[in-house]
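This part of the workshop introduces the protein records we will be handling. To make this concrete, we reproduce a full record directly below:
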Amino acid sequence: MTADDLRETSAALAGRALELPELARAGTVAAYVSVGSEPGTLALLDALRARGVRVLLPVLLADNDLDWGRYEGEGSLGRVRHGGRMALFEPTGERLGPDAVTTADAVLLPGLAVDARGMRLGRGGGSYDRVLARLERAGAHPALVVLLYDSEVVERVPEEPHDRPVHAVVTPSGVRRFRQPAD
């Protein structure tokens, strides 16, 4: 994809996501900053923040768990390289602790693919599996939404016993729902 294609795709993705009722009524959204070839998230993060939404972004810990910090605009991000892996953009402000995600009304999850059942294929580090387990232990039921390109919605992905389905996938061309979040 060209830089123009990526900008257009990011804008379309943000527009679709902002139409979701789960994001429209959210006071707090846990999200992430896209890296590499992932669909761009900065336009969406800025739009949520402009609505007055508290946006939490992950900070990768040494054990692959996630701490959280507040997104205060693009200037509040720092580029951090973790070992030999790709550099991530993380919030540079106060750390809120791994349990901060349990306050979110919606959690935007990265992924490589999602299948027709709503099962998400992650990158294999287990960070978001830990987040989903933490939410379950806390009795928290935020909307779980994956942001992907259209071609990344597939018939079936491999599944492990600990995997949990998401509620919806947002792509530049639309939204596909798998189940409703609990109230």
In short: The chain has a mean pLDDT of 91.
